Amino acid sequence: MNNFLKLRTAFTKSIYLIQEQPSLKRIIQFIANERKCRTLATKVQHTSEDSYLEFKGNWPNEEKQCFLQDMRIFINFVNEDEEQQLLSEVEPYMKRLRYEYDHWDNAIHGFRETERKHWYPENRKIIDKIRNTGFADEIMPFVHVLDLSSEGVIKPHVDSTRYCGNIIAGLSLLTDSVMRLVRIDEEKCQQNDESNVQQDYRTQPEQSHTLLASSFHANVLLPRRSLYIMSNTARYHFTHEILPNAVSTFRGQPVRKDRRISIICRNEP
Q1: Closest CA to 264 of 86, 137, 120, 43
Q2: 249 CB contacts (<8 Å, ≥6 apart)?
Q3: Dihedral sign, CA of 221, 224, 227, 232?
Q4: Which member of 110, 128, 177, 230 has the lowest number of beta carbons within 10 Å of its beta carbon?
Q5: What is the band of 236 on the pLDDT scale with cuts at 50, 70, 90?
Q6: Cα separation of 179 and 264, whole Å?
């Protein structure tokens, strides 16, 4: 027993001395982090800059850092069973609707939508999980369910603060897709009681192709069953859109969007 105690003491001292060496300490920390990452591999993960974000154009460093804070992606936010659980609740109603191609503000084509306030208990847990992940306070009671056909698109637009708050969280079901965010003029996206932007639910730039050519932007890969949380500058200083298949690429690789259902939560204005 005495030999065992001596051995344990020597081992403890060795570990302490190793950790005091900066380079070896970093190696130990790296191994610990690797183990932690492997443990979390099947759980919800927040992405890093070089994983699901593609930056285009000349980004000012400060603005890029703000964008990284305000545009977050969580992969594997729900598992396959939870995805089917949500679909089983919304599908019966959605199937009774036709896809629309003349949206009242011309922002969405090939869609059908609804809002739900009450959810089955198991799905309510998922909605609460979204709220706890993306919001400090309560979300708006009605959750938006948007069903986009395989050929449907969401055009570039900026939402108004008049109808919802500074955070939007969207759970992407059934397919991968690519969201593009394009920087717009600071003065044009200022929202206050006297601004024209405030009067509309969404504002669309008149010439989005010109805007894209003259501004820096980001492509964001939204994997199936991921959650995106868009807030503050990402929400109001950039247009956002879901790209059509003809131009839907991420880092040079095509990303085909099939039918997409998104569960969207917002906070109060």
Answers
A1: 86
A2: 178, 219, 243, 255
A3: positive
A4: 128
A5: confident
A6: 15
52 burial via Cβ count (<10 Å: 0-12, 13-18, 19+):
buried
Contact (Cβ atoms closer than 8 angstroms) between residue 169 and residue 227: yes
Is 143 inside any structural domain?
Answer: yes
* pLDDT tens per residue across span 159-209: 877 778 899 999 999 999 999 999 987 555 555 444 443 344 445 554 455
Which tokens go with 131?
Answer: 């709220």
**Which structural domain, as residue segments, surrounds residue 230?**
51-99+106-190+216-266
Q: Is the pTM of this model over 0.85?
A: no
CATH code of 248's domain: 2.60.120.590
CA dist list (Å): 145 to 94, 169, 173, 249, 251:
9, 12, 11, 25, 29
* Tokens 């059509």 -> residue: 244
Residue in 19, 14, 266 with CA at minimum distance from that of residue 143: 266
Q: How far apart are the first and last CA of the chain?
A: 68
* CB of 159 closer than 8 Å to CB of 269: no
**In 3D, which of 172, 163, 167 has the Cα closest to residue 236?**
167
